[in-house]
Known about the structure:
2 copies of one chain form a homodimer. Chain A is an alpha/beta fold.
Amino acid sequence: MIRRTPQQPRERGIPDATVARLPLYLRALNGLAERAVATVSSEDLAVAAGVNSAKLRKDLSHLGSYGTRGVGYDVQYLIYQISRELGLTQDWAVAIVGVGNLGRALANYGGFVSRGFRVAGLLDADPEVVGDHIAGLVVEHSDELESVIAKRGVSIVVIATPATAAQAVCDRVIASGVTSILNFAPVVLTVPAGVDVRKVDLSIELQILAFHEQRKVNGGPVMGEEWAGEVS
Amino acid sequence: MIRRTPQQPRERGIPDATVARLPLYLRALNGLAERAVATVSSEDLAVAAGVNSAKLRKDLSHLGSYGTRGVGYDVQYLIYQISRELGLTQDWAVAIVGVGNLGRALANYGGFVSRGFRVAGLLDADPEVVGDHIAGLVVEHSDELESVIAKRGVSIVVIATPATAAQAVCDRVIASGVTSILNFAPVVLTVPAGVDVRKVDLSIELQILAFHEQRKVNGGPVMGEEWAGEVS
DNA sequence: TCGACTTTGTGCATCACTTCACAAAGGCAC
DNA sequence: GTGCCTTTGTGAAGTGATGCACAAAGTCGA
Ligand SMILES: NC(=O)c1ccc[n+]([C@@H]2O[C@H](COP(=O)([O-])OP(=O)(O)OC[C@H]3O[C@@H](n4cnc5c(N)ncnc54)[C@H](O)[C@@H]3O)[C@@H](O)[C@H]2O)c1
Ligand SMILES: NC(=O)c1ccc[n+]([C@@H]2O[C@H](COP(=O)([O-])OP(=O)(O)OC[C@H]3O[C@@H](n4cnc5c(N)ncnc54)[C@H](O)[C@@H]3O)[C@@H](O)[C@H]2O)c1
């Protein structure tokens, strides 16, 4: 995406791999804070987050020098620094498009609100669903998509529609100025540069598990007849 | 996990990054097959799957030499080969533990069954929930976990319980011989070697989006007062 | 005040994955 | 057949992430 000149060594740039782990550290730190732990070593925090301690230290070093040698990291302070880096000190208005099985589960989920994400809109195309009250919100018709995004200052959209509708919804959302999308529909969304799409595909996760499971059982795919069939 | 001697160049081993993309190719191929496309070039398939064509070719080369130079890949044949490699030619019994908002959405989701994954058990600890009929199944009490796994030949377990219950469920599941787990609870599960855990954490995905979103708006986290506070 | 001890932050070697670029393979037209 | 044209499969170079290992920094007890 964002290309930078090889000159400046990535001004305040944090590697993607690191960014993806920061929320993990944050979760572990919150766990420690609840147990009233004041400081933590990279070793202990690494164990709690399920990573290597050298990796943890290198990740944190990208944010700045927030540790104290001989002691470790101040839990509260580190929570604050990571939250700030991730942009969790402000809160983000999220809209969910597609209020079916999955959309409802997401809307009812408390884990988002607790992290500065506020569900500010629920939209669906089905007149049966429009008007339903879910998690204190009323489902609106997806015709209102643009106005809901504008009026409520939505900056992140979650797409939980069927795959066939996802690209169209995506296009409209981007036209409304949104540049951050979380997609649950099993399709590759085409978006212009500058728009971030992250996808969650449960089916893919299961398929990866199946791959490894098969290896454990067989030592490989369908043994015996492998390579047998020419393509005719 | 599985360490191999540097001698043998990874006997039939497929890089993890490749395995993670195979389901993507499979989905793209199924789309082509529905539109009755007989053959496809690496270039076209790469576009459909949203990847670089060189990467696609290298990925497929790990499975074998299934293309025809000057022509491309036979769609049906490639679908078969990838399915076989992923272990989707057999079907897998899946149990879902924790039938709350998310567990229900998963149970009702048709996208699993279509890929050789059969939901063979729904388990919950709440007596209110036990006995409910969902997607043609009756929710059973989680006390029955071990016997359900054994009787129905469950090889993949989905954990959709609250975070606090996840590790305990995980331990019991592993004790029953399951070695493939898909975890939705926001905790790091501790498992013995040989057990595969994949996790899906929606909250993490949103946090990563927020990070990038913040960069777009500000060019960085909370400008102005940054680095201001010493840790006291 | 000092010295022993702990733990960070990072240079460096290594590993894994990506991308380029092209020779070899094969189809197809004539 | 023969030769052109397309597309694969893959060496090799490039990029980024990982993990080791250790010097530097800081704490704390005596
Ligand atoms: N439920 C799951 O566990 C699960 C798992 C993996 C992937 N998914 C994917 O998530 C998506 C949603 O799944 P689901 O089970 O909730 O499906 P669902 O059919 O229950 O819900 C989809 C909802 O989207 C609405 N919709 C359709 N077109 C729309 C449009 N243009 N604008 C706004 N809303 C629209 C429908 O009215 C419906 O309410 C699907 O793409 C599915 O493949 C779901
Ligand atoms: N709903 C979402 O969109 C969402 C999003 C991200 C993460 N999650 C995570 O997924 C998990 C489930 O979320 P949810 O919204 O469905 O929660 P939920 O509270 O609606 O459902 C949890 C279910 O698990 C059952 N349960 C509790 N302890 C159990 C045990 N020991 N054995 C079996 N069942 C048990 C409860 O009875 C309940 O039915 C949570 O860990 C949550 O953090 C959910």
